[in-house]
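Ligand-bound model needed. zinc ion.
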Amino acid sequence: MPAHDTLDLVIRNADVVTASDRFQCDIGVRDGRIAVLGHDLPRGAREVDATGLLALPGGVDGHCHLDQPMPDGLRMADDFFTGTRAAVCGGTTTVIPFAAQEKGGSLQAAVDDYHRRAEGRAVADYGFHLIVADPTPKVLREELPALIRRGYTSFKVYMTYDDLKLSDREMLSVLEVAKENGALVMVHAENADCISWLTDKLIGEGRIAPRFHGLARPAAVEREATHRAITFAELVDVPILIVHVSGQEAIEQIRWAQGRGLRILAETCPQYLYLTADDMGLSGDHGYEGAKCVCSPPPRDFENQAAVWRALAGGVFSVFSSDHAPFNYDDPAGKQPGGERPSFDHIPNGVPGIETRLPLLFDGIARGKLTLHQFVALTSYRPARLYGLYPRKGTIAVGADADIVLWDPARKVRIANAELHHAVDYTPYEGIEVTGWPVHCFSRGEMLVEGGRYLEPLAGRGRFLAAGVPVMD
Ligand code: DUC
Ligand code: ZN
Ligand code: ZN
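Prediction:
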C-alpha cells in the first residue's frame, strides 16, 4: 500500500457481528471510515488487538433527552457533553434527542436553540427528532415540511402531558404531513383524560406518594391510547412508531395491528425489562425514594417484563432505546422540585439510562432472551435505518463510519452510579450485575473509551447528522 494510503487504525482479529452476519477479520480505518475488511492488513498508524472481543457497530440511541428546556425551574442533569460522554462509555456512538416546540412557539426556533446547546459540547454524533406540540397551519404547511427536507425526518407527538398533548384531530393532521413528506411519527400513547381523572381521585384520597404514579397510569390507559394511535395511522395510511411500550396490553394491540398488515412499529426501553411498580414504592410505603423510578408509562410487574422480553425476541419491536430522562434525585431542579417532596403528579418523569441501555440488553443474550444479531438490530441497525442514518451508521461495512465498539462478552460488571459517566446522582439499576461490557469504543475511528476508561476527547467533536429518508422495514 502506498504511504498516503496508510491506514489510520487497524483493529486486528475482530469477531465482527452485524444485524445479519458474523465473520473474523481485521478492520482497516482511514479518514474516519471503514476502508477495508480483510486479513493480514498492512500495519496501521494505530493498532488495536481485538482477540477475544466482539466488534459490534456503535449503538444508536434513538430516544433520549439531553438538555431539553424544562418548565417550572426544572433542569435536566445531562447536557450534550455529559450525556454523550455517558453514551460512548456505554457503547452508544450516535444519539438522537429531541428539539421540542413550545406551545405558541415555532419549531424552527426550537431547532436553532437545540443546535446551540449541542455545538461545542457533544462527544458523540447526534441527530435531532422534533417534538410537535403546537401544530398550527403554519407549522404543518411550512415549518415541518421545510425541516423534514433539511434532515429532521422524525417527530414525536404526545397524547398526554398538558403542555405537549395533541387532540385526536391534531394527531391526524400531523400524521398526514408525515405521509406527504415521508417522515416518521413517534407516538407517546397514554390517555390524558383517564390519567387526570385517576390522578384527581388519588390525590383527593390523600394517596400522593410516588408509587401512586403507577396507579394513575395503569396498563389500560396505555392500551387504549395505543389502539387509538393505531387507528389514526390506519385512517391516514401511514406508518407510526409507538415509543416506550411498557408491557403486555400495549404489545397485544401492536401485534394485532401488525397481524392485520398495518405498519405499526414499536420501541421499548430498559426500564420495562428491569424495573417494576414496586421500585416506585411498596404498598404501605409513604417514602419518597420511589420518585427515582417515576417515568411514563410506568414500570409494571414481572409478568409484563417477561412479555417485553418475549416480544423483543419475537420481532414485535423494531428498536430498543434508553428514553434517558436525566433528573437528579437530590435536587430542587430535579425529582424534588423547589426543594419539596410533592405529590406524585408533580415529580418530573423519567429515568436515566443512556450508559446502561446496551449492557442491560446484552445481558439478555447470555440468559437466552435474544440473539447477538437481534441485539445489534434493535440497538444499532434498525434505529439507524429508521432515522435515516444507514448505512453510515448501524453496521460494520466498507464505507460506513468507523463507529465500532469492542465488547467483552464475558466481563461481569455490577452497575454502580459511582462508575457511570452521566451527571445524574443515581441510577435505577444500582447493584444489578450484567454479563458483557463495551470495553473499547471508537467513533469515526477515534478511540474515545479504552478498557472502560473514558479518554476525554475534545468536547464538540460530535457532529450533527442530517437524517435521510426513514426506512421502515
Ligand atoms: N416519559 C416521557 O414521555 N418522556 C421522558 C421520560 C418519561 O418518563
Ligand atoms: Zn414519551
Ligand atoms: Zn422520552
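The pocket of zinc ion (ligand 3) is lined by residues 63, 65, 323, 325 (CB under 6 Å).
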